[in-house]
């Protein structure tokens, strides 16, 4: 049986590995370790927060090593390092976001249909919404914002409505990519540094495991180390990438509302799609713990997220984000913030009590964007014959929408292309 190596075990890597395992002997190389949800109760962390010791969002990594924070010029990047990649931190939104791919002539209807058959995707959580969620929904409806229930990777009956979705689901009600890896060989703690190339092919993968330098041979190599990890590996291997990083920045707008308990609710239960961004209720734990202005009890706050489709410009160097938002990005964010302010005011908040969160991002991608020339092969010409990329790096434009479902649809198609 031919051997395939998949680098990275997130949305793209796990799906590629699962699909390829039908015809290849697959090994997944993953830099991080097994995922563990936040191991300390929020009550304890809330007490520590009152001491004022939480000054830098990167401190979250001390208690949750699978959650990584990269401090950029004007925002932080949040991403997952560990089995399941960033999907373990995801809010569970399962949204089709392939407009850019369709424009290139890439039709993934079949793959999206298969994903809907194979994974627990549902909008059947509306009946569990709390009063504050219903109230927010009706205010946004009155404002003509056309909110709709969010499709979720979710087993609704198992959901405890604890609101921990982005810090690790304690019940596994929320589906994540670890489920695709069951029964597959995953080497953890293995950081791939580069591919050794020759004669238009990759001959070997070089990696570090602790202090050891190790190599792996394979017939096929799939690079799926995410929107920050993949460009780093490719460039170290002499394969160019573009400075077209997008990140889908997020800014939360919150106000105190005593006793509403938005913190005890599935995150992002519904969404309003605006022209350049979406708005959705979201208890932003990063801002709650690390922004000095978020000083209310977590049971007494309502928070709305603006998630923007940013201009595709920016870079990654040594896995560090080199990106500032453009004036246009800021202008669009400001419009979103004003819409959120309006919603909160109609819900009874005082304008002067409204606070902004930490500008953050969690959807890096776009540095090896597919073009119409790649529509049938899904194999950008800069890649050696036996190397495929299978993650957010391939997306041709920022989405301003959750990308996991689309990345997995791409991964399915790529595996089919490889398998002939
Ligand atoms: C808080 C948060 C909430 C989110 N919520 C949603 C949501 O609800 N719905 C949605 O669709 N999207 C969501 N996202 C985004 C989504 O999780 C990511 O876009 C998606 O997982 C990206 O898939 P990927 O395969 O490109 O990379 P990832 O899932 O990030 O996987 C990359 C993997 O590669 C590994 N890796 C990196 N470098 C190396 C290396 N050198 N060697 C070996 N392994 C390496 C990493 O450890 C990681 O496991 C969220 C993101 C965040 C931060
Ligand atoms: S709200 Fe539901 S899906 Fe989210 S972490 Fe809690 S149990 Fe899991």
Description:
With 420 residues, the protein is α+β, with helices and mostly antiparallel strands. Helix content is 25%, strand content 22%. The protein has ten helices and 21 strands. Strands 3, 4, 6, 13, 14, 15, 16, 19 and 20 form a nine-stranded mixed sheet that branches. It has a five-stranded parallel sheet with strand order 8-2-1-12-21. A three-stranded antiparallel sheet has the order 9-10-11. Helix 1 (11-20) runs parallel beside helix 10. Flavin-adenine dinucleotide (FAD) is lined by residues 7-13, 29-32, 78-82, 85-87, 89-93, 166, 191-192, 224-227, 229, 233, 362-363, 391-392, 402-405, 407. Residues 92, 154, 159-165, 169, 171, 173-174, 266 line the site of iron/sulfur cluster.
How are the SSEs ordered, and which strands pair?
Blueprint: E1 3-7, H1 11-20, E2 25-29, H2 42-50, H3 60-63, E3 67-71, E4 76-80, H4 99-103, H5 109-118, E5 121-122, H6 131-142, E6 148-149, E7 152-153, E8 185-187, E9 191-198, E10 201-209, E11 212-216, E12 220-223, H7 226-236, E13 249-256, E14 270-273, E15 277-281, H8 285-290, E16 301-308, E17 315-317, E18 320-322, H9 327-346, E19 355-356, E20 360-361, E21 387-389, H10 404-419
Parallel strand pairs: 1-2, 1-12, 2-8, 4-20, 12-21
Antiparallel strand pairs: 3-4, 5-7, 6-14, 9-10, 10-11, 13-16, 13-19, 13-20, 14-15, 15-16, 17-18
The structure holds flavin-adenine dinucleotide and iron/sulfur cluster.
